[in-house]
User: Fold Succinate semialdehyde dehydrogenase from Mycetocola miduiensis.
Amino acid sequence: MTNSNNSSVDIAGAAIPTGLFIDGTWRPGENDATFDVISPASGAFVASVADASVSDALDALGSADRAQASWGRTSGRERAEILRAAFDLIRQNRDVIAAVTTAEMGRPIEQSLGEVDYGGEFFRWFSEQAAHLSGDFGSSPRGDFDILTTKVPVGPSLLITPWNFPLAMGTRKIGAALAAGCTVVIKPAAQTPLTMALLVRLLAEAGVPAGVVNFVPTSDSAPQSEALMADSRLRKVSFTGSTGVGIRLLQQAAPNVLRSSMELGGNGPFLVFDDANLDAALDGAMLAKFRNGGQSCVAANRFIVQRAVADEFIARLVERTQALAVGDGATPGMDVGPLIDARQLARVQNLVDDAIAQGATVLTGGKSVPGNGHFFEPTVLVDVPPHADIANEEIFGPVAVVSVVDSDDEAIAAANDTPYGLAAFLYSDDVTRAFNATSRIEAGMIGVNRGLVSEVGAPFGGVKASGLGREGGKLGIEEYLETKYIALARLER
Ligand code: NAD
Assistant:
C-alpha cells in the first residue's frame, strides 16, 4: 500500500481518494497540508491524507450552502434513486470497502464485511423513505381555518463521525440527511478517513450533484467545527462520539440555535437473571463484549449476574474469552483486532491496573500484547469495587467486568447506576419478568435475549448522557426535517 500519486492510494486493487471533496471536486488541502493514517495492527504507514484547514472547511460549507436550494427542491423520488444507486455501489464494492476499513483500523476482515452490509442498508432504507415524505392536514378546533403541515429540509448539516464504525456511522447520517433534502459537510475521524473517502467517491458515482456532499478530513477537529458552527449558513450538527466532545459541541451549537443530534458514549449493563438460558447468554455476551474488540458504544461494559448462575456463567465466559484469536484483522479468522491507537491502549491498561490495585481479580488476560500493534489481551475481571473507574467509564476495549447480585431489584439498580443510558442487555427465559425489567432500565435500547441491538429499521440512540435524537428506523429522517405549518383561511365562513 503506497501513495500512487498525490490524490489517491491503492488498497486492495482500488484507488482510494486522499483529497478533500468540495463542490464536486477532489482537491488538496490548503498549503498541501497532509496527515498520516497508520495501521494500529502493525504501526505501518497506510496513506497520507489531505488535512483540511479552517478555510477549506468554510469553502465546503459555502459549497453545501449554494447547493442547498436546488437539492432541497429535488423530488423525493430523485433523491431515492440516487441513494439506491449508492446502496448498489456499496454492495458491488463490498470487499474493497471492508479491506480499507481493516487497513486503517485493524479490525477482523469478517467484521468489516459485516459493517459494510449493515452500513449499506441505511442507504436502501432511507431511499425507501425519501419517496414517502408527507405532512398532515387538519382544521382548527373552531373550524374557522385549515391547518396544513409540510416537511422541509433543515439545511446544510455538519456530520462528525468516529473511527469505530467508519462506514456505518457515516451512512446512518448521510442517508437520512440526503433523503430529507439536506446538503452535508462530513468530518471523519482522523484515524479512519479512507473508508469515508471511498464512500464519498461512490456517492459521487451514484449521481449526487456537486456541492451536496462535501468531505473535509482534518487532524485538528476543534477549530474546524468551531468555525463551521459559528457560521450562520450551517443549520444542523449531527455528532457521533464521546460524551465530552458532544457536550462541547452542544455549547458551540447554542449561539446559532443549531438543530443538534448527539450519539454519545455508553456504559452498557448486561444482566443475566437466574432463569436465563446460559448458552444464549454466553453467545450474546461474546458478541456484546468482544465485537469490534469492545470498541463499540453499545458494547457490554458491566456484566451483572445473579448468584445462582454466576459461577457457571463466569467459568464459561473465561473459557470462551481464552479461545479468542487475537491479531491483525487482515488475516482471516481473527476474533479481536488491535485497539485504535496507543492512547486507547494506555487508557485500557490504566483502567485494568487501577481495578487490580483496588482489589479486582484477573481471571484471564489483563495485559497489552508486546509488539508494534496496539493489542490488548481479552480479559475477564471479577471482584471490581463499584467505585473503580473501570465500572463507571466506557472501557472501549476487550475487557469484561463481572459482578454478582442477589435479586432483580439489585441488578436493575446496578444497571441504572451510571450517567449513561445507551444500550442494555437482559437475559431471562421468563418473558413477563424480562418485560417488567425493561420498563425500569434507563436505556435508549434494550436487547432481550439478544447481544446485538443495531438494526437499520430500529431507532438507535440513548437517554441521559448518551445523547439526543435517534438515527435509523422511522425516526432517523426526522432529525433532518423541520415541520412547517400553514394556517389557511377559508374563503367562505
Ligand atoms: P471522539 O469524541 O474523540 O471523536 C469523535 C469525532 O469527533 C471524531 O471525528 C473526532 O475527530 C471529532 N472530535 C474530537 N474532538 C473534537 C472537537 N473538540 N470538536 C469537534 N470534533 C471533535 O470519539 P472517538 O474516540 O472517535 O469515538 C469513540 C466514542 O464514540 C465513544 O465514546 C463511543 O461510545 C462513541 N460512539 C457513540 C455511538 C452512538 O451512536 N451513540 C456510536 C459510535 C461511537
